[in-house]
Amino acid sequence: MARQTRSSSGDSAPTFTPQNLLQYSEKECCTFDGAYLSALQTSGIFPEGTIFRPYDRELRSDMSSTEWLYFNAFPFTLGLRFPFSDFITNFFRMTSLSFSQIMPMLWRVLVVLDRIKNIHISELSIIDLPIAYWLRSHGSSRFLFYSTSPDPLIFRATRKEEEWKSEFFFFVKRSSIPSGADYLVKWLTRGRI
């Protein structure tokens, strides 16, 4: 039976439920401690009033919650802010994937395409992606783009990132962010685009 982590407020209802999708979930424990959370709260990356869950070393990246939303730190190292742009948000709506299922390569491609859309091709849409990329699982229900051509549309998007899964991740209270309740609770095991 899956072990559940309860809310720190003493509720009897479980807050986090393991999805048991990761082979080595113990290697992906929460590492975003109080000092990092304080810096994040004042960074302006999230809207004012966003509630961050206190550090809890028991949390794993494949846990689901109806109350809290999981984020990797990686997309924010690329300069993104939340809420994400309409282009990036539409990717998640169309694929029904969770933010935490996206590998660094896919984040890089989304960021570059989002910038191209904003500067050069305003009509660029997520429905145009299959021309250049297929969505593909890379194990553990995580996803990346696979180029439809021997020459990828965006060069150098693929780099080996050893620590991105366990580097820093954190949880934000869904009710404290725009459209927080609309984001997925559980990971999908098959993406679509």
Q: Could you characterize what this model shows?
A:
It is a single chain. This protein is an alpha+beta fold and 193 residues long. The chain has helices at 34-41, 74-77, 86-95, 104-119, and strands spanning 5-6, 14-18, 63-64, 68-72, 133-137, 143-147, 169-173. The protein has a three-stranded antiparallel beta sheet, with no helix packed on it. A two-stranded antiparallel ribbon has the order 4-7. Strands 5-6 form a two-stranded antiparallel ribbon. The chain is globular, with a radius of gyration of 17 Å. The model is unreliable at 5-12 (pLDDT under 50).
Q: Which band does the percent of strand residues land in?
A: 15-25%
Number of helices: 4
Number of strands: 7
> What overall form do the CA principal axes indicate?
globular
Question: What are its keywords?
Answer:
single chain; 193 residues; alpha+beta; 4 helices
What's the short story on this structure?
With 193 residues, the chain is an alpha+beta fold.
Secondary structure elements and their pairing?
Elements lengths: L4 E2 L7 E5 L15 H8 L21 E2 L3 E5 L1 H4 L8 H10 L8 H16 L13 E5 L5 E5 L21 E5 L20
Antiparallel strand pairs: 1-2, 2-3, 4-7, 5-6
